TrEMBL record:
Protein name, as recorded: LysR substrate-binding domain-containing protein
Entries under PROSITE patterns matching the protein: HTH_LYSR
Bilayer-crossing regions: none
Alphabetized PANTHER family for the sequence: HTH-TYPE TRANSCRIPTIONAL ACTIVATOR TTDR-RELATED (PTHR30537:SF5), HTH-TYPE TRANSCRIPTIONAL REGULATOR (PTHR30537)
Keyword DNA-binding: yes
Entry's family note: Belongs to the LysR transcriptional regulatory family.
InterPro entries reported in the protein's UniProt record: LysR-type_TF_proteobact-type, LysR_HTH_N, LysR_subst-bd, WH-like_DNA-bd_sf, WH_DNA-bd_sf
Segments forming domain HTH lysR-type: 5-62
Amino acid sequence: MPLNPNLNSLAYFEAVARTGRVTDAAAELGVSTAAVSQQLKQLEEQWGVRLFRRQDRRLSLTLDGEMLFQTTTAAFRMIRGARSAVLRQNDSQQLAMRCSPSFAVRWLTPRLKDFLDLNPEWGVRIDASPDFSDFETETMDLDLRYGSGRWPGLHAECIINDYVVPLCSPAYRDRLSVLADDPVRQLASARLIHSVKALYQWNLWLAVHGVDMPVEQAPLRFDRSSMAIQLARDGAGVVLDSVTLACDEIQNGTLVPLSPAFPAVEFPAYWIVCPSRHLNRRIVRLFRDWLHRNGADFQAAARQCLEGFGCAIRPAADGEPGLL
């Protein structure tokens, strides 16, 4: 067998194995069916094995064929990904990223004009989606992710530490204060709003603070923080969610901490995530530096705002978000 198998034959083989038909593979490759069949025959002769068997007008892989397909499809996917990255690098000056919807709308977009003013020659593309990027197959420079910071095989650096504390409207807080002076008893009488994708959930927070809640009869659960925060602002209950996302409401007074007796818990939550090689792009480095500056300024302002309400701030302890 040749030490360097014919890459053209391997490409034809991968297309046939993936589509299951010589005709479909030929149409995809833009060649004749005879050319595909000839390449497959040469490949089987070179390797000395049978790669396909015919079943009901379709081709199915033999055990040897399946083993070769698993390797070739992964290799060609990586080659296509590398080609897309090279073309993107040379095609236009554009930063492409994916960002969680609530963070994109509530934090990133209001600040983005500053970055664009500093870098007017660059375009920006943002996909506001909860789905993570597949950097091997998609033309994405980076993700802005909410999470624990553990993404194996990827570079991750925190840009913002988040704070969580029970939040509600001033009117809802006043209603609870009439029921009891003790903030624990106030919370036990409250309707909880659950943000189901938040790192810090009510069940953990209640256990850490020793609050026994009655069984919820009509729980409120939302998979978007923006919805949970809006409902709390409208006076429907108490939410435990990202102060980063609710900072505008806290600063303008439409949301307030339920009680200064409950400290705000701090933990790393918002991250730049990408393959390490993407940091070699100048625009990625510029955007990373800009995020760090804005993240630090924002974090200091959020901390000052919480302290203005009398809330102490403590780092997450063992078993809490950020230290799991």
